[in-house]
Design goal:
Number of strands: 10
Distance between the termini: 105 Å
Helix content: 10-25%
Strand content: 35-45%
Number of domains: 1
Structural class: alpha+beta
Protein backbone atom coordinates (compact mmCIF):
# COMPACT_ATOMS: atom_id res chain seq x y z
CA UNK A 1 0.00 0.00 0.00
CA UNK A 2 1.35 3.00 -0.95
CA UNK A 3 0.36 6.07 0.73
CA UNK A 4 1.10 9.24 -0.74
CA UNK A 5 2.57 11.41 1.69
CA UNK A 6 1.86 14.87 1.00
CA UNK A 7 2.74 17.60 3.20
CA UNK A 8 -0.15 19.25 4.77
CA UNK A 9 -0.93 22.55 3.24
CA UNK A 10 -0.32 25.59 5.24
CA UNK A 11 -3.47 27.45 6.07
CA UNK A 12 -4.10 30.51 3.87
CA UNK A 13 -4.23 33.85 5.44
CA UNK A 14 -7.64 35.42 5.26
CA UNK A 15 -7.95 38.25 2.73
CA UNK A 16 -7.41 41.67 4.26
CA UNK A 17 -10.64 43.36 5.31
CA UNK A 18 -12.02 45.97 2.91
CA UNK A 19 -11.20 49.39 4.14
CA UNK A 20 -13.86 51.28 2.20
CA UNK A 21 -16.94 50.76 0.24
CA UNK A 22 -18.31 52.01 -3.04
CA UNK A 23 -20.28 54.75 -1.31
CA UNK A 24 -17.64 57.48 -1.69
CA UNK A 25 -17.18 57.05 -5.46
CA UNK A 26 -20.96 56.91 -5.95
CA UNK A 27 -21.47 60.12 -3.94
CA UNK A 28 -18.68 61.92 -5.84
CA UNK A 29 -20.07 60.78 -9.18
CA UNK A 30 -23.56 61.96 -8.16
CA UNK A 31 -22.23 65.37 -7.11
CA UNK A 32 -20.34 65.72 -10.40
CA UNK A 33 -23.52 64.90 -12.29
CA UNK A 34 -25.54 67.48 -10.29
CA UNK A 35 -22.89 70.17 -10.93
CA UNK A 36 -22.89 69.36 -14.65
CA UNK A 37 -26.69 69.61 -14.84
CA UNK A 38 -26.63 72.96 -12.97
CA UNK A 39 -23.95 74.39 -15.26
CA UNK A 40 -25.95 73.31 -18.31
CA UNK A 41 -29.15 74.89 -16.89
CA UNK A 42 -27.37 78.19 -16.23
CA UNK A 43 -25.84 78.15 -19.71
CA UNK A 44 -29.19 77.49 -21.39
CA UNK A 45 -30.87 80.21 -19.28
CA UNK A 46 -28.21 82.78 -20.15
CA UNK A 47 -28.47 81.93 -23.84
CA UNK A 48 -32.26 82.36 -23.68
CA UNK A 49 -32.00 85.68 -21.88
CA UNK A 50 -29.26 86.91 -24.23
CA UNK A 51 -31.54 86.31 -27.21
CA UNK A 52 -34.62 87.82 -25.56
CA UNK A 53 -33.16 90.92 -23.84
CA UNK A 54 -33.29 94.12 -25.86
CA UNK A 55 -31.30 97.15 -24.73
CA UNK A 56 -31.61 100.50 -26.39
CA UNK A 57 -29.73 103.65 -25.49
CA UNK A 58 -30.86 107.05 -26.72
CA UNK A 59 -27.89 109.39 -26.89
CA UNK A 60 -29.22 111.57 -29.70
CA UNK A 61 -29.40 114.50 -27.31
CA UNK A 62 -26.31 114.70 -25.08
CA UNK A 63 -28.27 116.30 -22.22
CA UNK A 64 -30.94 113.59 -22.27
CA UNK A 65 -29.78 110.09 -21.45
CA UNK A 66 -32.30 107.29 -21.83
CA UNK A 67 -31.88 103.52 -21.47
CA UNK A 68 -34.52 100.90 -22.09
CA UNK A 69 -34.14 97.20 -21.25
CA UNK A 70 -36.82 94.70 -22.26
CA UNK A 71 -36.86 91.06 -21.14
CA UNK A 72 -39.49 88.33 -21.14
CA UNK A 73 -39.90 89.03 -17.41
CA UNK A 74 -40.52 92.77 -17.67
CA UNK A 75 -38.92 96.00 -18.76
CA UNK A 76 -37.09 98.92 -17.24
CA UNK A 77 -36.76 102.40 -18.69
CA UNK A 78 -34.46 105.02 -17.23
CA UNK A 79 -34.54 108.61 -18.41
CA UNK A 80 -31.88 110.74 -16.79
CA UNK A 81 -32.12 114.51 -17.08
CA UNK A 82 -35.42 114.42 -18.95
CA UNK A 83 -38.00 117.13 -18.54
CA UNK A 84 -40.03 116.81 -15.35
CA UNK A 85 -43.44 118.40 -15.22
CA UNK A 86 -45.55 119.02 -12.15
CA UNK A 87 -47.99 116.43 -13.51
CA UNK A 88 -45.31 113.70 -13.68
CA UNK A 89 -44.01 114.59 -10.24
CA UNK A 90 -47.45 115.06 -8.75
CA UNK A 91 -45.95 117.94 -6.78
CA UNK A 92 -45.67 121.68 -7.36
CA UNK A 93 -42.29 123.02 -8.42
CA UNK A 94 -41.22 126.08 -6.45
CA UNK A 95 -41.57 129.21 -8.62
CA UNK A 96 -38.24 130.34 -10.02
CA UNK A 97 -36.38 127.19 -8.94
CA UNK A 98 -33.89 125.85 -11.46
CA UNK A 99 -33.26 122.17 -12.12
CA UNK A 100 -29.91 120.94 -10.91
CA UNK A 101 -28.30 119.31 -13.94
CA UNK A 102 -25.79 116.50 -13.55
CA UNK A 103 -27.48 115.39 -10.33
CA UNK A 104 -29.47 112.27 -9.55
CA UNK A 105 -32.64 113.41 -11.28
CA UNK A 106 -34.27 110.62 -13.24
CA UNK A 107 -37.48 108.99 -14.29
CA UNK A 108 -37.57 105.20 -13.89
CA UNK A 109 -40.37 102.93 -15.08
CA UNK A 110 -40.21 99.29 -14.02
CA UNK A 111 -42.69 97.10 -15.88
CA UNK A 112 -43.44 93.64 -14.56
CA UNK A 113 -45.45 90.84 -16.18
CA UNK A 114 -49.12 91.72 -16.43
CA UNK A 115 -50.03 95.25 -15.49
CA UNK A 116 -47.82 95.43 -12.41
CA UNK A 117 -45.07 97.99 -12.27
CA UNK A 118 -43.42 100.84 -10.47
CA UNK A 119 -42.89 104.45 -11.52
CA UNK A 120 -40.23 106.59 -9.86
CA UNK A 121 -39.65 110.27 -10.64
CA UNK A 122 -36.89 112.21 -8.88
CA UNK A 123 -36.05 115.83 -9.64
CA UNK A 124 -33.67 118.16 -7.83
CA UNK A 125 -33.99 121.93 -7.85
CA UNK A 126 -32.23 124.91 -6.31
CA UNK A 127 -33.54 128.37 -5.46
CA UNK A 128 -31.78 131.39 -4.01
CA UNK A 129 -34.73 131.88 -1.62
CA UNK A 130 -34.30 130.92 2.04
CA UNK A 131 -35.65 127.67 3.44
CA UNK A 132 -38.37 129.40 5.50
CA UNK A 133 -39.89 130.99 2.40
CA UNK A 134 -39.75 127.70 0.45
CA UNK A 135 -41.19 125.77 3.41
CA UNK A 136 -44.10 128.26 3.65
CA UNK A 137 -44.81 127.75 -0.08
CA UNK A 138 -45.03 123.96 0.28
CA UNK A 139 -47.06 124.16 3.50
CA UNK A 140 -49.55 126.36 1.65
CA UNK A 141 -49.69 124.18 -1.49
CA UNK A 142 -49.61 120.62 -0.05
CA UNK A 143 -50.01 121.10 3.71
CA UNK A 144 -53.49 119.53 3.91
CA UNK A 145 -52.34 116.39 2.08
CA UNK A 146 -49.19 115.77 4.18
CA UNK A 147 -49.26 112.50 6.12
CA UNK A 148 -45.79 112.82 7.68
CA UNK A 149 -43.70 115.89 8.47
CA UNK A 150 -40.10 115.99 9.73
CA UNK A 151 -38.08 119.04 10.56
CA UNK A 152 -34.47 119.04 11.71
CA UNK A 153 -33.47 122.60 12.46
CA UNK A 154 -29.93 121.64 13.47
CA UNK A 155 -29.36 120.13 9.99
CA UNK A 156 -31.47 122.65 8.09
CA UNK A 157 -33.72 119.90 6.67
CA UNK A 158 -37.47 119.73 6.25
CA UNK A 159 -39.35 116.77 4.77
CA UNK A 160 -43.01 116.61 3.71
CA UNK A 161 -44.43 113.16 2.88
CA UNK A 162 -47.76 112.38 1.27
CA UNK A 163 -48.75 108.72 1.24
CA UNK A 164 -52.00 107.44 -0.22
CA UNK A 165 -52.05 103.67 -0.77
CA UNK A 166 -49.11 102.73 -2.99
CA UNK A 167 -48.55 106.34 -4.04
CA UNK A 168 -45.82 108.21 -2.15
CA UNK A 169 -44.70 111.80 -2.74
CA UNK A 170 -41.85 113.47 -0.88
CA UNK A 171 -40.63 117.05 -0.77
CA UNK A 172 -37.24 117.38 0.93
CA UNK A 173 -35.85 120.84 1.58
CA UNK A 174 -32.31 121.59 2.69
CA UNK A 175 -31.05 125.03 3.55
CA UNK A 176 -27.71 125.80 1.91
CA UNK A 177 -25.38 128.77 1.93
CA UNK A 178 -26.62 129.96 -1.47
CA UNK A 179 -30.33 129.25 -0.89
CA UNK A 180 -32.42 126.09 -0.68
CA UNK A 181 -32.13 122.71 -2.36
CA UNK A 182 -35.46 121.06 -3.22
CA UNK A 183 -35.73 117.31 -3.87
CA UNK A 184 -39.06 116.14 -5.28
CA UNK A 185 -39.78 112.39 -5.35
CA UNK A 186 -42.86 110.56 -6.60
CA UNK A 187 -43.13 106.75 -6.31
CA UNK A 188 -46.22 104.97 -7.53
CA UNK A 189 -46.97 101.27 -7.87
CA UNK A 190 -49.47 100.14 -10.44
CA UNK A 191 -51.44 97.01 -11.18
CA UNK A 192 -50.47 93.70 -9.66
CA UNK A 193 -52.56 91.07 -7.96
CA UNK A 194 -54.69 91.90 -4.98
CA UNK A 195 -53.56 90.32 -1.72
Amino acid sequence: MSTSSSAPRAPMAPPPPRTGSNVVPIVLLSLALIVLVCVMAVWVSLRFIAHEVRISVDNADAAKKAVSIKTPFGAIQVNKNGEFSEAALGLPVYPGATRMRDQDSASVVLGLPGDAGLNLNVAKYRTPDGIEKVKAFYQDRIGKQVTKFKERDNEGKTVFEIKVGDDVKVVALKGEFEGTRIDLVHVSARGGEAD
